[in-house]
Amino acid sequence: MPRPKHLRKTATQFADKNRALARFFFDETGKTWQAIIGVDEVGRGCLFGPVTVGAVMVTQASLAALETEAWAGQVTDSKLLSAKRREELAPKIAANLPHATAHIAVRYIDRHNINRAIQYGIYRAVQSLLRAASMHPEAVRIIADGNYRFKYPVLGMAKPMPRLDTETKADLRYFPVSAASVIAKVRRDALIARAADRFSRYDLAGNAGYGTQKHRDAIAEHGLTAFHRKSFKLKG
């Protein structure tokens, strides 16, 4: 019996992403990588709460095993998915693929800067995956969404890291980066949801920590909490 049209569409989308990803398992010198880790961050521009980095590891074998899974073709940049769909997809990603998240606290962001916090988040999430998978950094390659120029090792991030490639729109083009964006978004949103009742004046349930006018007005009226990013020059 033919597959339903919507299932054929998602399978095609997943296959297209796999073809685009295939080139990252090799390079022009003939070197090959056993695994790819896709990473993405959520909360970069928020006024409240941590920045969260998600990481998802795939191999050619794990990608092949997902080709018949309809949900895999639905995974895309988390910003393009409804909250309900993200909540449906995140457990499936987590059940089928090695993954990690790193929440980098406001204190770290304020002490250093947001880019350094994201760099540290990538480091922590990737190191967690390497330990869990017992994989050497030389066997793994990272794809990150964005145009960062991070170099490792640096102070406070001394362990060897895999090769890191960055690309804008990677969270839209490559399955493991898309999956990482979904994991990061769901995990960060859960943290903010737990804070929403405690800090109800700031409408966190409605803004997830982002700088909406209602959020900024609340800061002006009630001041800053310990979880607002003071380095963002907020007026409270």
Topology of this structure?
Layout: H1 5-22, E1 35-42, E2 51-58, H2 60-65, H3 83-96, E3 99-104, H4 106-111, H5 114-133, E4 140-145, E5 163-167, H6 170-173, H7 175-196, H8 204-207, H9 213-222
Parallel strand pairs: 1-4, 4-5
Antiparallel strand pairs: 1-2, 2-3
Helix pairs in contact: 3-7
Subcellular location: Cytoplasm
Enzyme class: hydrolase
Catalytic activity: Endonucleolytic cleavage to 5'-phosphomonoester
What does this structure look like?
The chain is an alpha/beta fold and 236 residues long. It has one domain (5-199): Nucleotidyltransferase, domain 5, CATH 3.30.420.10. The chain has helices at residues 5-22, 60-65, 83-96, 106-111, 114-133, 170-173, 175-196, 204-207, 213-222, and strands at 35-42, 51-58, 99-104, 140-145, 163-167. It has a 5-stranded mixed beta sheet. Helix 3 crosses helix 7 (175-196). The model has no long low-confidence stretch (mean pLDDT 94).
